[in-house]
Structures are given as C-alpha cells and as structure tokens.
Amino acid sequence: MDTTQRTDQQRSADRRRRELLEAADRVVLRDGPGASMNAIAAEAGITKPILYRHFGDKGGLYAALAKRHTDALLGALRAALDAPAERRERVEATLDTYLAAIEAHPQVYRFLMHPTEGASSADQGFDLGKHSAPLLRRMGEELAEVIEERVDLGPGSQQLARVWGHGIVGMMHAAGDWWLGEQPCSRAELVRSLADLLWGRLAAAGDRVGGPGF
Amino acid sequence: MDTTQRTDQQRSADRRRRELLEAADRVVLRDGPGASMNAIAAEAGITKPILYRHFGDKGGLYAALAKRHTDALLGALRAALDAPAERRERVEATLDTYLAAIEAHPQVYRFLMHPTEGASSADQGFDLGKHSAPLLRRMGEELAEVIEERVDLGPGSQQLARVWGHGIVGMMHAAGDWWLGEQPCSRAELVRSLADLLWGRLAAAGDRVGGPGF
DNA sequence: ACTAAAGTGTTACTTGCGGTAACTGGAGTC
DNA sequence: GACTCCAGTTACCGCAAGTAACACTTTAGT
C-alpha cells in the first residue's frame, strides 16, 4: 500500500473515468440528453454497474460531464473578460465568445441548459435543474467579481455588481437561447444590439408617436 | 347528438377538467414538480387513466397547468407594462410585478421554471424544458411588441426590439432566480439596481483604480 | 319498457429506466 | 497454491408512465 501503487491505481481509474466520460459525451451528443445509462454503458463497451461505481448515480455522471464543458466555456469567457481593451469592447468580446460557443456546439449547449429536450415526454434522462443553475450561477458570480473589481460603482457596489452580474448573464443566456432557435440575425448584430441595450440606448431612445413610451 | 346535449357534455367535461387541474395544482405545490400521476389522481379522488383521458399524457397535464399560471402572470405584467406613466416608472413597475409574483408564490415559480427540483435524482416528474421555454419566450415576445410599439428605435427597430425583449426578460428572470434563492437585498433595491443597469449606468460608471475597467 | 350508445370509472398489466446485490474470472501477493 | 482485490457480469428490485380490457351509470331512440 505504498504511494506508487496507490498512484498507479488512481491513475488507471482516472483514465477509465475519462474514457467513460468521453463515451458518455458521444452518446449524449448523439441521442440528446435523454440518453439512458444502458446506452452510455453500451457505448463505452461495458455495463451499467461500472458507471455507477465511477459516478455514483446519474446525477454524478451528468455533473462530471457538465463540469468539463462548463469549465471550458468559463475559461473562454474569462479570457475575453480579461483582455486588454476598453469596456465596451470587452463586453462585446465576451458576448461574442459566449454566442460563438453555443453556436458552434448547440448540442452541448442544449445538454447543459435544456436537458429535457430529446426525452419523449416525461422521463428526462439527466436532471438539469440541479446542475444547469450552477452554470448560470457561476457565470453570474464570475461576472460580478469582474465588475466589482474593475468598475467604480460608488457605495453599495458589491451588491450592485452581483445583481448586474446575474442580470447580464441572464440577458445573454435568454437572448442567446432565442437567437439559437430562430437565427433571426447575424451573431455580430446580436452582439451589437445587446451591447447597445447595456449601454443605455433604451433610456436614450425617444417615445414613438402616440403617447409616452415604454 | 344535437347541440344542447353536446354542450352539456362538454360543459361537464370542462368542469371536471378544472377540478382535476386544481387537484394537480395542490399536489404539485405540495410535493414539488416530481409529483407522480398516481399521486395527482389520488388527490383528485380518481385513478390514472382518467387523467390520461383528459390530458393525453403528463406533458399535456403540465402544459395545461402551466398555461393557467403563465396566463395569470402575463396578465399582471401586461397591466404594469401598459400603465400610464413614464418609461422608467413602467420598467420598474413591471420588474416589481414579476418579482412580487415569484416572491409570493415561489412554489409556482419553481414549478414553472425549475421542474426538476424535488425529484430525488434522475426521474423528474414533469418535463419543463419543453414548456418553461414557452413562458420565457412569451414574455420576451410580448415585451418586444411593447417596445417596438412605443419606443422609437430608428431603422431595424423590429429586430432590435425583439433582441431587447428577450434579453430584458432573461435579465429579469436570472436576477430574480438568484435573488429568490439568496435574498441578498430587498425587492425594491433589486428593482432599482436592474433599472439602473438598463438605464446605462454600466456605461456611465468610471473605471476603478488600476487600469481600464470592464 | 327494452335496448343501444356513450361517458366515467376501475383493476391489472406492460414497458422501460434508475439503481443494486450477488456472483465470476483474472491479476498480483505472500 | 491459497488469498485478496478489482473489473466486470447477470439478474434482479422498485417505481413511474402509459395502456388494455372490463364494469357501472346515465341518456337517447324506438
């Protein structure tokens, strides 16, 4: 039971785990989030109980799977957020990064955000609710930190930054979700429109003829 | 098979349907969205097949249930949106209406938005993904209409309004969800913070010491 | 009044999935 | 060679969605 042996075992277990995750990834991306544990096990060339030994339950498998993609996305966003540029440019870069990601891998996106699609009716495979929140929440918190860190908001700045962090992330998310479904305009246009919204164009715009506007 | 008989039957069927929906409502609000069809049927004092005769499948039941609450919420929002007041005031009133609604009936809210909570691990009862989108989408579209109708946005206004509609709804939703979970501040503060965000305070704020800000 | 139809309800079943218990076979260790 | 681990298997349990087939009650038609 010395260290090297233990490390060897752990290493092999980790490798197996990665293989299983990759198999799960393939299945989920092919069959949608309703993929059954049996199907995933089959894709990995093994049977169910092994999956359970590695991940505990379906939620565990999902969580591991989600963590990979979530971390990747958050990394990309952080890079855009930390780039040396003006604020507006960064905001646009961040929005664009997010939208490019969901555009490039809509399957992954739908898996992370809308787990139930692909399940026939009831019975969705993975429970997203418990884990999709984390993605949004983590994005919101990270953005809040960046805002708090870089923008001078006066008194109550911490709370304000958190509200804005979650709010902006939600805006990005909802707009992206809608855009992905309908493709009503180019990505660049969407980015500009959202940035304009954040830049107060709503407040600056005039009323339409016929009374006080929204 | 003349008209009066048919009407009578239909009326009775409609009444029954309402009763069943109310029972389902009670169960869902008590047991969370993981409530089983058996449980709902028991609450209504009948058995499963009747539910299936009325609603087709679990998704149908959910859709009917969601429609009620969705319509109610949309009605309230429309009222706030159409009130005779200045734009900022309306925005705040609408935000406050939404937040007050989710604060007053968090169970309903969670059912509409996070169906999977309450299910043990996998196996959530209702499939929200397919139906929660509708709520957000409807809110987004309605808001887009109001914006397009009342705010003068120059060329490309229709598309811009839709982007903003969905974006603002998403902002409200995400911020509300986070706020409901952590209660980090009063509702009024949250409303103010979000309205400030929409009013361009992010663009107007100065950089913090130490370089260009977000 | 007798029958037929149609709606309301039931019990009992199938299917399919998540999850688990208990067994099997092979690699390394003393 | 006996012992222990560990990957892997088969075979099962429980539970919930959904369905088929049967029973009761009302209403309409002749």
Automatic annotation (TrEMBL), chains A, B:
Keywords: DNA-binding. Residues 14-73 form the HTH tetR-type domain. InterPro entries: DNA-bd_HTH_TetR-type_CS, Homeodomain-like_sf, HTH-type_TetR-like_transc_reg, HTH_TetR, Tet_transcr_reg_TetR-rel_C_sf, TetR_C_32. Signal peptide: none annotated. PROSITE patterns: HTH_TETR_1, HTH_TETR_2. It comes from the Bacteria. Residues 36-55 bind DNA. Gene3D superfamilies: Tetracycline Repressor, domain 2. GO terms for molecular function: DNA-binding transcription factor activity; transcription cis-regulatory region binding. This is TetR family transcriptional regulator. It comes from Streptomyces olivochromogenes.
